[in-house]
Each structure stands twice: as C-alpha cells, then as structure tokens.
Design brief:
The complex is a heterodimer of chains A (231) and B (401). Helices cover 23% and strands 17% of the residues of chain A. Chain A is an alpha+beta fold and 231 residues long. Chain A has 2 domains: 2-94, Beta-grasp domain (Ubiquitin-like (UB roll), Roll), CATH 3.10.20; 96-114 and 130-229, Fumarate Reductase Iron-sulfur Protein, Chain B, domain 2 (Orthogonal Bundle), CATH 1.10.1060. In chain A, a hairpin with a 2-residue loop joins strand 1 (2-9) and strand 2 (12-19). Chain B is an alpha+beta fold. Chain B folds into 2 domains: 11-54 and 154-229 and 321-401, FAD/NAD(P)-binding domain, CATH 3.50.50.60; 91-151 and 232-319, D-Amino Acid Oxidase, Chain A, domain 2. In chain B, 26% of the residues lie in helices and 28% in strands. Chain B has helices at 22-34, 69-85, 102-106, 108-117, 127-133, 156-167, 217-222, 287-300, 341-345, 361-375, and strands at residues 14-18, 37-41, 57-58, 90-91, 95-99, 123-125, 143-147, 150-152, 171-173, 176-184, 187-195, 200-205, 208-211, 230-241, 248-251, 260-264, 267-271, 275-276, 309-320, 336-340, 350-355. In chain B, strands 5, 6, 7, 14, 15, 16, 17, 18 and 19 form a 9-stranded mixed sheet that branches. A 6-stranded mixed sheet of chain B has the order 9-2-1-13-21-20. In chain B, a hairpin with a 2-residue loop joins strand 10 and strand 11 (187-195). The longest helix of chain B is centred in the N-terminal third of the chain and has 17 residues, at 69-85. Chains A and B meet through helix 1, strand 6, helix 2 and strand 9 of A and helix 2, strand 4 and strand 19 of B.
Chain lengths: 231, 401
Amino acid sequence: MIAKLSVARGAGRVEIEAEAPEWATVLDALESADGTQGILYRHSCHHGSCGVCGALVNGAPRLLCRTRLSELPPGVVRLDPLPYATVIADIAVEPGPLFDSLPDFGYLRPPARPGSVPDQAPLPSDRPERERERFEDCIECGLCLAACPVLVPVERDGSDEAKRPIRPFVGPAALGMARREIAKGGPASREARAVAAAPDGVAACDRAFACSRACPRGVAPGRLIEELRRP
Amino acid sequence: MAFETPRVDPLPFRVAVIGGGGTGAALAWDLALRGFRVVLVERGEFLSGTTGRHHGQLHSGARYAAGDPNIARECMSETLALRRLVPDAVEYNGGLFVALDGEEAAYGERFAEACAEAGIPAGEIPPARARELEPGLSAKVERAFLVPDGTFDAWRVPAAFLAGARALGAELRPWTGVVGFEAEGGRIAAARVLDRGRGIEERIEADYFVIAGGAWGGAIGALAGLEVPVTPAAGSMLAVKGRLCDLVISRLRPPGDGDILVPQRGLSIIGSTQRLVASPDALLPADEEIAFLRRSGAELAPAFAEAEIDSAWCAARPLFGSALDEAGGRAASRDFAVLDHAERDGVAGVASVVGGKATTLRVMAEKAADLVCRELDAERACRTLETAPPSWRALYRGRAS
C-alpha cells in the first residue's frame, strides 16, 4: 500500500509518500520514506519496549512503532511532535520534562534481594517462579504526559499560552511509579509517598483518565493515582 | 542509589566517536573515564540503529560455546559485569537450552563439554523439571540444560553509558551525521558533519577518531577512503503479546534461525532470521520470515502459534568480514575487532570497531579505548568494570529549554 504522511516541519509541513506492506506501522512507513526528505524522528526498538518513538498521530499521542497504518482512517496521516517536550526539528523532541519528573526508583519486580548479585554465574534451577525478576511495564514513553489535560490543556486559540500546564503537576508517569514502589514495598517507599503527597502530586490530578487511555502498555496510571488517593 | 560523578584526571586529547549505538555509547563512557575529552556524533537518535532493536538476550555465551569459545567466554564475563553495573536494566532469570528431537538430544554432550571449557555453568535437568520451571514449554522436550542467560533493556544499558559520559563532560551530538573527513599529511584531522536539527555543516577536529558505526561502518569508512570490513545482515524478529516464559529458551543445537525465545516486558520475542543485505537502512521483515518465526516460536512454546502478534521488525547485524558464506553468514563469527587504519589503509588517526554483539558492548569499548591510549601515547587503565554509570534517565534530565 501507499502511505501518505504529513509531518510537521517548523511552522509548515512536509508531505511524503511511502510504499509499505499492509501490516506496516507508521514508523515503518517513515523509515521507508526517509533518506529523500531527511525527516527527524526518534525511534529505537521498533517493538514498543524502549518508549522513544512517541508523537501525535492525527492529534493523539501514540508510539509510531505500535500504530499500524491499517488501523488509521484512510487518507493522509498527520504527525506532530509531543506537546510537552522541546522540539529539535520536525517531530524529534528532547523528552527532558518527562525524565525531570521521574524519580530514580528501581525497575525490576520483585525488589532484588540484598546481596543477591553474585560475582559467580548462578544456575537458576532452584529459583521459585514468584522470585523471578521482571521489568516494570512502564516504558517511560511520556504519552501519558502528552495526553494529560492538566499538563497539556486542550488548545483553544492555537497559541503557545494555551499549552502551558493549568497548574504544577508531576504527571501520571511519576505517580504511577510511586504507586508501584509503595505496592511492592520497595526501598524508596517513603520517597514515593512524598512524591504522591506533594502539592504537585495526587492533589493536582483532575481525574480525566486520559493517561490510562493513552498508555501503550496498559499501565493505567489513572487507576494507580486513584489507588494513591486511598488512605 | 545516587550517582557520584567519578573523579577524572584530564588528558590533553580530544577523541571523536562516530556512531551513537551500543558500542559508541560504551566507548564515550570508557574514554571519558580515562580522562579524554570526548565528542560523539550520531546521525539520528541515539541507539536508532541495531543495538536498540535487539531482542534483549543477555548472552551467557552458551549459544556460542561449541563454535566460538572466545566470544562465549567474553559473553559470560560481560553478562556478570553488566548485571553488576546496570542492575536495574537486567532481568537475570536464567536460560534453558532444550532438545526437541533425537538429533538435538545427541548434541547435548558436545554442548555441555563446550560450556564447561568456556567456563559457563550448564546443568542438565530432567525434562519434567524444565516444564515445571516453564509450563509453556513444548511437551516434546527430550533434554534440558539450565544456563545463566538473562535479558536486558537494549535502550537503558547504553543510555546509562551515554548519561555517564555526559556527566563527565562528553559532548554528545545526536542528529549529527558525518558527511566527510579531512586528512593532513596522511592523518585524519577533522570530520565534516551535518547538524540535521539546525541544518548546518560544521568541522569537528580531534586528535583521534573511532568509527563505531556498526553495520553502517563500511559507508562511514568509505568517506575517508578506508576499507571497513563489515557486512550488514538483516535479522528479523517477531513479538507476540503475553509472556510465554520468564527464562530465555533456546534450541539445543548450533546457532541458526528462529531458535531463541526471549521474554521482554509483556512480550515474547522469537529471534531471528539472517540474510545479507546491501544497505542496512529501512529494513523490514519479509512475509516468509514472519511465517517462519511464527512456526519456530510455536515449536518452543505451542501457545506462540495462536498468540496475538504485537510487532515484527528487523535489525541490521554488523558481521565482521566482507567475504561471507552463502548460507547468509551464520558461519561468520560474532566476535569483534578493533582495526587500526594506519596499518590497514595507511591512514593514521582513525580506528574502527567492527562486529560484536550487544552483550559485549562494554569490552568492545575497552579494547577500542586501549588502542586510542596506545596511539596517543597516553596510557590509562580502563575503569568501566568498577564504575557504575548513572541512571539512563539522566541522559535527558535538566535539558528542558
């Protein structure tokens, strides 16, 4: 199939066409078309694991690598940069505000046992299933920040002013991480409670649940924030 | 764990690293720790080439023990090093090698001996025990060996090295591609680069240049008239939704196509295929590769056949060598080399890192940095084995405009 993409470039746009298989993603189409147009876009893993390729697809925050062309309405696909981040060029951004908001909690569950990192290679034969390590599902892609109506108010007049946060808010990703750290009794539970209790924490959320709808990994930050509200 | 910026004794040399993939990231960190001033250029986003796309297996080396003992040993020691250095980006649940037929079962002896020789603990367990550990495993298992494989986050490990390099003052420049080199008296003196974000060309001077372009190394070297012996090979991977295993499951046979099942977050990934390609750019899996991978995954874990497909993608492997066998290069070593182009091409001031695997990124950087030290007569010991980098999150922190 021929994919037609309209990509933001500064105040204007660049229109491209790419030949792509039926099952291809927006990222696949961009890859095929790059080279001639020199479009700047972030990407890395191509399977929804690194969280790098977020952008607005037809106005909605999505991962380019997890958005199939076949699931979009026919016609031109509009691509714009994530609104909370600093644009480098085209749809490539510096995701600084996302990472500024995230605390450095550990990333595996269950928490690693103290002293459990030996210098010898272990044979995992006696390790019960419940002790296996797993990466958290949150891939730190920032789509929840881009979807949040507190952080990115719906644009009314097209001015930059309208995109400023309504109030200081640490954001759904950081609060989701805080909730998980507390739930698993992690070493940073106290710090996590402080993140949640701060004025820009749970209290700043308007309960729109746009974060949960935007999350490409089913983390449901909105539900985790609700859990943090309970005493 | 707060990161304390390591103390560094500065050297009066500037080293340019061309390429911001796994190797370039580890090299920038290694050189910065030794005291070099580092500038790294990457034509796109960091890790947008090969390392970021890999399925995430942290190799114990068992896969290579019988055919390639050197890379097997290196994999084992690097697996332990990465687990210690970047613990939050490693799932260390182990791996299982399983025989699904008589021929594979007969390979068990050779496999066990080779693992023992390479210093990789491999313990045979009864098939029933293997299926207890991994209930999703095929009922056809005839033999099973536990090995210390794991998985790692292909973005976060190298991103942590980049963040560490930046903390030590390295100048990291994504969206900046090399368009040419300038030589003076038989020595590379500068690289001409295009800053794609600003649309301007610049000159980057350095005392030494290292091409860490992976599968793109040949094209980068050609800009300086160098022959960098790298052959790009396309490796396709297929992910289904759901975690069908927690251990990495491999076929008990010599490395081939469709023989590793890797859990990664909520996905199960089967890897991979291999075909030589002319260009490493814009690779997509072929339909027949996807169908083959679907069947191969189901041989290891039957639920793979019906699970919903999440994604299919392709990465460009950098095979070391230019004259590879016709079978798609599987016989090519996954070992790596650091090439001094003064010796090879009569052009001084530049080296290339070729070949290798994501698991061995740190040691590839160590060997390349050792060469830089020798060439600039600035002997400094490698520090990356005992210095943990900061969180990958630091790579983008504090950079809002």
